[in-house]
Specification:
The chain has one domain. The protein has 4 helices and no strands. α1 runs antiparallel to α2 and α2 runs antiparallel to α3. The chain is elongated and about 65 Å long.
């Protein structure tokens, strides 16, 4: 067993644990914003670790495809979470009393006054 095998195993196990903790967070957190946090950050980190662990065992030409998958995930997950969060906010699915700063509410109120 080489150091590359150990590195790959650590990345794969760490990624799987991160995805598991994210899934537990999605099931146990009380509101939409907390669930979005649990659905995006640990899942993205878990996928990146799994891709790194897998790429370490492959030739570069095959691993380059995994790099593209990781970049695509890092670009799309935050954008989708923001869009879902905005939709949930506008649908009144978020408890606004728990928000520390409500920039979107201020923006929506400003837009209503301008119209």
């Amino acid at each position: 067993m080489s150091w590359l095998d150990v590195f790959s195993a650590v990345c794969l196990i760490g990624g799987a644990l991160s995805c598991l903790f994210g899934a537990i967070g999605v099931l146990s957190f009380p509101d939409v914003t907390a669930r979005l946090q649990a659905a995006t950050k640990p899942q993205t980190l878990g996928l990146i670790l799994i891709l790194i662990g897998t790429a370490a065992q492959l030739d570069f030409i095959y691993a380059s495809g995994l790099i593209l998958v990781g970049l695509f995930q890092m670009l799309t997950a935050p954008v989708l979470a923001q869009l879902v969060g905005r939709a949930a906010y506008r649908a009144d699915s978020i408890d606004r009393e728990t928000l520390v700063v409500d920039e979107l509410g201020d923006r929506i109120e400003w837009e209503r006054q301008v119209r």
